[in-house]
Every structure is written in C-alpha cells, then in structure tokens.
Amino acid sequence: MDIQKVTVAGGGVLGSQIALQSAYKGFDVTIWLRSEGSIERAKPKLERLRGIYKSTLEALKTDPSAWCRGLTDSADVPAEKIDELIARVDAAADSIKLTCSYDEAFGEADLVIEAIAEVLSEKEAFYAEACPHMAERAIVCTNSSTLLPSAIVGYTDRPGKFLALHFANNIWKNNTAEVMGQPATSASAYQAVVAFARAIGMIPLELKKEQPGYLLNSMLVPFLNAAEALLANDVADVETIDKAWMLGTGAPLGPFRILDIVGLSTAYNIVAASPDAANPDTTAGKIAAKLKSYIDAGKTGVNAGEGFYKYR
Amino acid sequence: MDIQKVTVAGGGVLGSQIALQSAYKGFDVTIWLRSEGSIERAKPKLERLRGIYKSTLEALKTDPSAWCRGLTDSADVPAEKIDELIARVDAAADSIKLTCSYDEAFGEADLVIEAIAEVLSEKEAFYAEACPHMAERAIVCTNSSTLLPSAIVGYTDRPGKFLALHFANNIWKNNTAEVMGQPATSASAYQAVVAFARAIGMIPLELKKEQPGYLLNSMLVPFLNAAEALLANDVADVETIDKAWMLGTGAPLGPFRILDIVGLSTAYNIVAASPDAANPDTTAGKIAAKLKSYIDAGKTGVNAGEGFYKYR
To answer: How many distinct structural domains can be found in chain A?
Structure first.
C-alpha cells in the first residue's frame, strides 16, 4: 500500500521525534494529542527538535563526525545541499498538524503510530476511541517497548493491520526501527511498515516473531545484568569491568557507561521486577541495593551529570 | 619482590605466547615441558610467534593500524627504534630455555606460570612434582580459564603465593591479564603479579575475589547466550541480530561475529553443559541443536573459513 499520511498518537519524547523525522522525510504528518494542554506541551518539544536537526546539519558542513544516519545518507554532503536540508527541516516542522480531534487526526491516515504512555488501560481506551475513526486501509503500529502487540491487538478492530514499530531514542541518530508483528499481522502490512521505516531514514530490523524486549534489549539486559552482578558481588570495580569489556571485545563503551546512558532508574526498575530482588542475599537483591545507593545520591546517569561516572 | 626469572610450565598456544612476551620484555624465561617430545613440539610454536612478532613490528613502520598494544607503548615509533625491537624479538626467542628437568626449570624461578592442560588431575600431578623444586620465594600463577585457583591451591605448598593470572589468546595484541587470587593469596604476591603483568606489556585487570569466567567471560557468556536464543527461537536471522547490537551499542562486532572468533565448538560445549540442553524443547536444547548443525557442516568459525559468516 502507499503510505502518505501519517498520524502519530502522542507528543512525548518519542512521539515528537517520530513526527518530525517522518515530516522531514516528506510525509504528511499529524500529531494527535489528548487535550489542548497536551498540544501546548508538545510544541516546545518540536521546536527543540527543529533546533537539534538544524544545528546538526549545520555542523556537518565542517565536521563529518556530526553525521547522523537518519538525516543524510552519508557524511559527505555539499554545503548547498545541506542548506536545502535545513530549509526542509523548517518546512517539515511547520507542516506538522497538532489536533485533539479523532476525526481530523485519524480519518485520512494511511499509517497510525501510537506512542502514548506504556499503560495497558490507556492503550485500551485510546484504541477503542480512535479505531472507529480510521479508514479501513489504515495500518496501525504501536511503539510500545514493554508491551507485546498481541497484548494490545484485541483493543483494535484490525488484527491483520496491527503490529509494533519500535524506535530508539534520538531517532535521527540512533536510526534503528524494530518491526515486530503479532500472529495475525498480514505479510503485506508488515512489509509496508518495513518500507515506511526505510523511507523515513531508519534501518529496519525485522523480527520474525514476538519477543519481549525486541532484539537489542533481549541482549542488553542480560549483558548489563551480568556486569551489575560483578559489581554488586564486589568482584571488581566499575572501571575494571568496563575495561575488561572494551579491551576484550573492542566495544567503544563498557557496561557502566551504557548504564549511565540508559539511566540507573530504568536499570533499577528492571532488576526490581525480579522476585529475588527483595532478598538482600541474592545477586538481584545486591544489584538492586547497589543501584539504589547511586539513585538515592542523585547519581542516576548522564542526564543527571553523574552516574557510575561523572559528566559535569 | 623482584621478579627476574620466569618459568612457564607448558608450551601450548598460551604457554608459548606468555614465554615469548615475557622474554621480549626483558625477563629471563624458561619453559618447562613434560618430555623431549613436548620440547620438539614447542619449538615450531615459538618460531611461528617469532615471525609474527617481527612481521607485526615491520608492518608498523608504514601502517599505524598494525599496532599491537603488547609490543610498543604507542603506534608512533621511529623506524630505527622498530629495528631495535625486531632485534630484541630475535634475542628474546633465542634466549628462551626449554627443559624437562624440574630442577633446572623451577630451582631458581621467581615466578612460575602454569599453562598446562585444563584437567584437574594433571594440574594435581604437576604441582605435586614441581613445588618441591621451587624456592620458597617463588610465586606461582595458574593461567587456567575454567578452574578456580581455590580448586588448585591445595595441590601446592604455598597458599599465600598462589593465584591466577589469566591471559587472552594473541597476548601481544589482546593484552589483558586478569589477576585473581584465592582466599589465602597474600596482598604482596597479588601486587607483585599485577606489576609483572604490567611489566610484560599487559593491562592488568584486578579481580577482588574469585569469579568463574573471570570478568570478560562472565559478561560474554550471558550476552552470547541471549543472542543464540534469539536465533534458536527463530526471532530473527544472524545478520539482523548482529545489526541490532552494532547499531544499538556502537560495537564493531555483533554476537555472531564474536562467536565465529570464539569458535562454535566452544560455544556448543558451554551450552551443552547446561542440564536443559538435552531437552530439544528448551531454549538451551534449541541452541545446542542449532550450533550442532553448523558444527556438523564443518562451519566451526573463522579458523575453519566459515561459521555464521564466510571468511574464505
């Protein structure tokens, strides 16, 4: 099918990025928001992104290391072409429609990307309200990180046209898009979403079946957990563990640098979900206690200026 | 203590590398071998390494990417200095003594590095025979990857001076040395080994307590296992899983490239050791079956020219 009109439901961190990236790559984009208040809160997010997109492109004129894979196909772009792209960012940001009308948002959409809160009851309420306003042809994707599409599909009216399209934060830079169907997803809807992901400058990563955590987190969580266990069991210090990983595998970042980026609160929530975490004698309990000691000291990661390492 | 005379027990892959690297960095090195036959088998290994060390240094004259951290402190070395280092490789290789006499090998050693087969009964027999020949001052390290030093220390006569010093393959390039004591290891012996590791061009990674798998493998095994599970459960293909890891973390290699380097037989042995592996319905059973299908087809990794990827 031919996707032209895209509606993003939700204007949060990811919703605003998906909207601007899609508009930048030439799609006709609407953001649906629950209220006028949400519209006002979404606007400064889009303005901030507009600035980041433009300054990143501007930097690329003199610094190839500024290259972000979602913005241009290569780092080698002539300055005049970059000026065109900067103008395109402005046109894209100006073109995005924000509305809380279901009809206006969903009536003509070819593709709907739902990026609302990760709360099943909120997803349920959203799909129950929104689906009746959508055209039959519309494909619907959830950007959920933690809920499987099979847990959500029952709230929609289109099992064959419902799947997950999962973005990473800072999508203009970290341009992977994990595509994951549920058992009823049709091959044509799946492939249309893969093509759309590619069309907005993403590298689609195709999952053949449902997997909690998709691909990246399915590997990252056990890896980070193993590193956390070494620290919590006092086998070695942060710097030594990171060095072992970087020197042993050639990776640019060790596990504790990655944890600082992910954020220690997220890491804590993952380990705290394990039943063992309540028992301080288990490895999970020791990891939870160790992470909590950092969090209680305000060291929650890069965004706080300090986590396992200092960034101030 | 002052370490000058180093004896390496065993002339296998790692033993020969540890011996040449130590001699190259100025130590007086002896290799103890079990028999005249073992001496004859060790000689070509040392000659091969001599050639690798010399050609790597020669390449560094024109190609900074040839730099190996164990050979020079930086990639920026003047050609005359490199010629001196090449001469030093020859002098080092020529200086290494090979013997099957316990007295000759161990009588004057300040440091003994045991790198014999990973079989507990062989370790037991070795230490029972060798320890009585050693000076009281001698520090003894095992290079064992799979046995903890506390499992071996009882065969020695020097609990305070016994610990693990664990090298990676191709130590002139992968120059990490994990240093791990057992409960009775003295702080002075531990620190002497850390200093020795540094003196032979290694980056010492200090473990504060015993940990099966040391640091690197403690993280690598669960990470690779998670990637193998994604493949064995048919969630995605090899290339997609590798791409997810590389794009998501900036790593130069995905898990299946790493598995090709590690070797699929080693990966198979690790998963086959799990009790679940015998049941084909479990994830471990599916991983074992998947790895076995590659191994049966001769695709055991980089060394075979093909594993998950082709290298021919």
So the answer is: 2
